[in-house]
Design brief:
Elements lengths: L2 E5 L5 E5 L4 H10 L7 E4 L5 H12 L3 E4 L5 E4 L7 E2 L1 H4 L9 H8 L1 E5 L12 H9 L3 E5 L2 E5 L8 E3 L5 H11 L5 E5 L5 H12 L3 E3 L5 E5 L7 E4 L4 H13 L3 E5 L7 H9 L3 E4 L3 E5 L10 E2 L11 H9 L4 E5 L8 H7 L4 E5 L2 E5 L4 E2 L2 E3 L3 H12 L1 E2 L1 E5 L2 H6 L3 H7 L3 E5 L2
The structure holds ligand EPZ.
Length: 420
């Protein structure tokens, strides 16, 4: 397994471009199952998860044409089976996103039940209950979700018990071809849900309310193809800004969308960062100052995103003062804490809260990544450590961060990949 070797102590300085959003690209790729026409998707990030989704669609017979800039044209009229196998689903939970569109367009879908992962049990009961409310027959047996519908799904008034991003996305996609109106209450408001809705509308769907907690979909007979460019990745953007703040640096991130990061930018300003924003760029300057500790609580958008909790914990670990970070979305998203404490951090977990006493610098050590965002936080910890840090199991990183060592090298970091 590849490892990343980091020599800490340099301040990140310079400019980088942000890639397309993984968590928008994945549902949009699944949405191509809703039409028999070609759908062209551009600004896809070069990530393992994108390749996995292409492989998953491919194994069901969906035709894909890949351009030299990784723009992809997908056509599901060639689909020849409706089974999303466990071998692929176990590597990427977002495979669940093929369930709604495949059921709505083809009347059947068999998707392996995604297991839990490092951050939590991550059930999909709300996806299943909602599709049942729309008239689907859904059984869960032998580790597979088996869904069928006689004729079109029916529009329904759905109340989500919890805010679920992919649950909202699955139902919204299924509703586009249902007979009648579907109202999704307590819907996820994430920008990636909005991006998916915009793509579905470009395919002829009748959707309103995306970005609010109530989404209304009037089903149509069929959807047509379109060309769509995926929004920039707000989590990648925030990760580099937090890394720059932790290293007391000065960076500019381009090709991004500042208004999707307001909660994160506000916390970075509290940490002492000078932030400037433009139409598609954000600059951060710490003026060589040590960051101040910041307390925060994660929650569904527009609150502070759970996907940037680990990265902010790394910033707090070397900040002035003490901070309190509370995780309310997932039940086990502190795996990075134990690794950071091995690097000299002073972090203490009590329930769903981590108490942080900032220290001036960490001490490099061999550490192990456990999940995508925890891996990013360990790289930040390595950047603010004296001597060397070796991060193992970085396949987690390659799932969600495009060319991370190249982008960090562009910003002056001393980091390199050691092939296994
Ligand atoms: C999406 O996961 C993202 N993944 C996650 O990003 C992100 O952390 C998460 O939303 C929260 O923002 C993609 O979009 C591909 P949820 P998702 O359903 O949809 C519970 C990353 O790092 N729940 O919003 O799977 C669930 O257990 C990844 O890129 C149920 O109980 O998350 C969790 O506690 C990690 N039953 C909470 O809801 C359900 O049926 C929110 O989960 C569904 C969810």
């Amino acid at each position: 397994m590849d490892k990343l070797l980091i020599q800490g102590g340099t301040r990140l300085k310079g400019e980088i471009r942000i890639a397309g959003a993984k968590n928008s690209a994945l549902p949009i790729m699944a949405a191509t199952l809703l039409t028999d026409d070609y759908v062209k998707i551009s600004n896809l990030p070069h990530l393992y998860d994108i390749t996995t989704m292409l492989e998953l669609l491919g194994c069901m017979g969906v035709e894909s044409i890949i351009g030299d800039k990784l723009e992809v044209e997908l056509n599901s009229s060639t689909i020849n089976n409706f089974n999303a196998p466990y071998e692929l689903v176990k590597t990427m939970r977002a495979s669940i996103l093929v369930l709604g569109p495949m059921l709505a367009h083809f009347g059947q879908a068999e998707v392996a039940l995604p297991g839990g992962c490092a951050i939590g049990s991550r059930p999909v009961n709300l996806h299943i209950e909602s599709l049942k409310q729309m008239g689907a027959q859904v059984e869960v047996e032998n580790g597979y979700i088996k869904a069928t519908s006689k004729g079109r799904l029916k529009g329904a008034h759905i109340f989500m018990d919890l805010v679920t991003v992919t649950g909202t996305e699955n139902v919204m996609m299924a509703a586009t071809l249902a007979d009648g109106q579907t109202i999704i209450e307590n819907a996820a408001r994430e920008p990636e849900v909005v991006d998916l809705a915009c793509c579905l509308r470009a395919m002829g769907a009748d959707i309103s309310g995306e970005g609010t907690d109530t989404i209304v979909v009037n089903g149509v007979e069929k959807l047509h193809g379109c060309s769509y460019s995926v929004m920039p990745d707000r989590i990648e953007t925030g990760t580099y800004l937090i890394a720059a703040a932790a290293t007391r640096g000065r960076i500019k991130v381009k090709d991004t969308r500042p208004k999707t990061l307001e909660a994160v930018l506000s916390k970075l300003e509290q940490a002492g960062a000078q932030i400037e924003i433009g139409e598609d760029w954000i600059s951060l300057d710490m003026d060589d100052q040590r960051p101040k500790s910041v307390s925060l609580t994660t929650a569904p958008y527009p609150a502070f995103p759970t996907d940037m909790q680990a990265q902010f914990t790394a910033l707090n670990a070397v900040a002035k003062g003490s901070g309190v970070i509370t995780e309310t979305v997932f039940e086990n998203r502190f795996m990075h804490v134990h690794e950071m404490n091995r690097m000299g951090a002073q972090l203490k977990v009590e329930g769903n809260t981590v108490f942080v006493n900032g220290v001036k610098a960490l001490i490099g050590a061999p550490v192990m990544a456990t999940d995508l965002r925890a891996s990013a936080s360990l790289i930040i910890a390595g950047l603010v450590s004296e001597n060397e840090t070796m991060v193992d199991r970085i396949y987690h990183i390659d799932r969600g961060y495009e060319c991370i060592e190249e982008k960090l090298q562009l910003l002056g970091a001393k980091i390199r990949r050691l092939p296994s």
